[in-house]
Design brief:
Strands 3-2-1-4-5 form a five-stranded parallel beta sheet, with helices on both faces. Strands 10, 11, 12, 17 and 18 form a five-stranded antiparallel beta sheet that branches. Strands 13-16-19-23-20 form a five-stranded antiparallel beta sheet. The chain is built from 14 helices and 23 strands. The longest helix has 21 residues. It starts with a strand and ends in a 6-residue tail after the last helix. It has three domains: 98 residues, 3-Layer(aba) Sandwich (Rossmann fold); 56 residues, 2-Layer Sandwich (Dna Ligase, domain 1); 232 residues, 2-Layer Sandwich (D-amino Acid Aminotransferase, Chain A, domain 1). The chain is of the alpha+beta class. A hairpin with a 2-residue loop joins β21 and β22. It is 30% helix and 25% strand. The radius of gyration is 21 Å and the shape is globular. Bound molecules: adenosine-5'-diphosphate and magnesium ion. The site of magnesium ion has 2 residues, from loops.
Length: 436
């Protein structure tokens, strides 16, 4: 089978690496991929994975290319092409493609849609309302005494949310979005949620539109600096499993969210086939969904796929075919930790083209897999090509060992301006799970 993966980040490298292990794949491309994806080899034939230089949101280009190369199965990584309707376009053209269609992708592309959907279907979430009128929005902020999360409706590269603790800053956030148009169209409609407190966990579930399969827990680290300081980023590191929920609690929380979600989708004619990823806050009053994503998390994928024992191609095909009910997910009991190495300046603008040293040495360490994100090949050398550069991932029998190995690997890698957090999974190691 010939497979095309769309995207270029750490998530897509992890998807590519895992799919390449499927013995059924005879040829594989990644568009546009990175310096890491093209190093992967198919376990069946030993042939290399090929990068195709087309951007993930170049729908006409990808469609033309696919008509020539005829991939049998297409896997979409990032949110943007999904929101643009890539799945609808490719299905109409007769291709088998994994990911939610445009209507289903609205769970991520419109926070107002998602919020109202949760309210319609009794999914536990924050007290919230959506607005286009600034005066009404400010009034709601006052009702919440300024304890708000003010959110642009549309995709905003992880920068469209402002969490506030007083009315003046809540008003400023409203004005920024609704009056000054800081996020353009994405922010001409906003959602305001009450500010919640608690630990955040990422849930992931594959779904074929009629059933879902929940993943184990993981936790991301969104802020740039240790101790959750500094601005938000796309994610600076993850680990799995997270000790804050027992398996029993996880399936209870998963069901409290995903059972009504799936029923709601059916009732509203939303055919979601892909990965649904609710962002959840564990509050003293119980779990609350703060948002939905409609694709794999990055860097959650890196820790999940290094623990997944199934053939990923089987699972993704089952989502598309509506046969996911025939599959059980199997997870390694090992723990996995991913530490992101980012460029200087990230999450602001960062330089590109810095040579990366030490990749080969890191790859030789036991249990270590270095996933590339913003990398490129320049004159035969691997160089930086974006904000998040690498996801250094290690798997081991315990979380402590996995963490030590990941940091051992990070220490062998260097590029000009490299920054990373020193405390990925540190809170988990201090946490003592209540004995069930
Ligand atoms: N209701 C809320 N209360 C407190 N913090 C929130 C709330 N909603 C979002 N946040 C914080 O803002 C971050 C980003 O919000 P989120 O809704 O996940 O949007 P996005 O991932 O699209 O930027 C969250 O990870 C969380 O830390
Ligand atoms: Mg989020």
């Amino acid at each position: 089978m010939k497979v095309l993966v769309i995207g270029s980040g750490g998530r897509e490298h992890a998807l590519t690496w895992k799919l390449a292990q499927s013995p059924r794949i005879t040829r594989m491309w990644v568009a546009p991929g990175n310096a890491g994806t093209r190093e992967e080899r198919l376990s069946g034939s030993g042939d290399p994975v090929e990068n195709v230089s087309l951007a993930a949101d170049d729908l006409p280009g990808l469609l033309d290319w696919s008509r020539i190369h005829q991939p049998d199965f297409i896997v979409v990584g990032p949110d943007n092409p999904l929101a643009l309707g890539i799945v609808d376009r490719f299905r109409e053209a007769g291709f088998r493609i994994w990911g939610p269609n445009q209507k289903a992708a609205r769970f991520e592309s419109s926070k107002a849609f998602s919020q109202e959907f949760m309210q319609r279907h009794g999914i536990p979430t924050a007290r919230a309302a959506s607005f286009t009128d600034p005066a009404q929005a400010r009034r709601f902020c006052d009702e919440l005494q300024g304890q708000c999360a003010v959110k642009a409706d549309g995709l905003a590269l992880g920068k469209g949310v402002v969490v506030t603790s007083d009315p003046a800053s809540a008003h400023r956030a409203v004005d920024e979005m609704l009056v000054r148009g800081a996020f353009g169209n994405a922010g001409s409609h906003i959602v305001i949620q009450e500010r919640l407190h608690g630990r955040e966990v990422s849930l992931h579930a594959l779904t074929d539109g009629s059933c879902y399969r929940l993943f184990p827990t993981s936790q991301d680290h969104k802020r740039i600096q240790d101790g959750d300081q500094g601005p938000n980023t796309g994610g600076m590191g993850t680990y799995s499993p997270a000790p804050f929920l027992s398996d029993e609690e996880l399936s209870r929380v998963g069901a409290a969210i995903l059972d009504p979600w799936l029923r709601g989708c059916r009732a509203e004619g939303i055919d979601f086939r892909g990965l649904i990823y609710p962002g959840v806050m564990l509050t003293v009053d119980g779990p609350r969904v703060i948002e939905f994503n409609a694709r794999f998390g990055d860097p959650e994928t890196q820790v999940y796929l290094t623990r997944l024992e199934n053939d990923l191609l089987d699972l993704l095909e089952a989502c598309v075919e509506g046969t996911l009910g025939q599959h059980a997910l199997r997870w390694s009991p090992n723990a996995s930790v991913c530490v992101v190495a980012a460029s200087a300046g990230y999450p602001g603008t960062s330089p590109k083209g810095k040579p990366i040293e030490g990749l080969a040495g890191a790859a030789r360490l036991p249990g270590v897999k270095v996933f590339h994100a913003g990398t490129a090949l320049q004159d035969g050398r691997v160089v930086t090509n974006g904000g998040r550069v690498l996801g250094v991932t290690a798997t081991a029998g315990t979380l402590a060992e996995a963490r030590d190995r990941a940091y051992e690997a990070v220490a062998t890698i260097a590029f000009d301006g490299m920054q990373y957090r020193r405390d990925i999974a540190a809170q988990a190691l201090q946490h003592h799970a209540p004995t069930a």
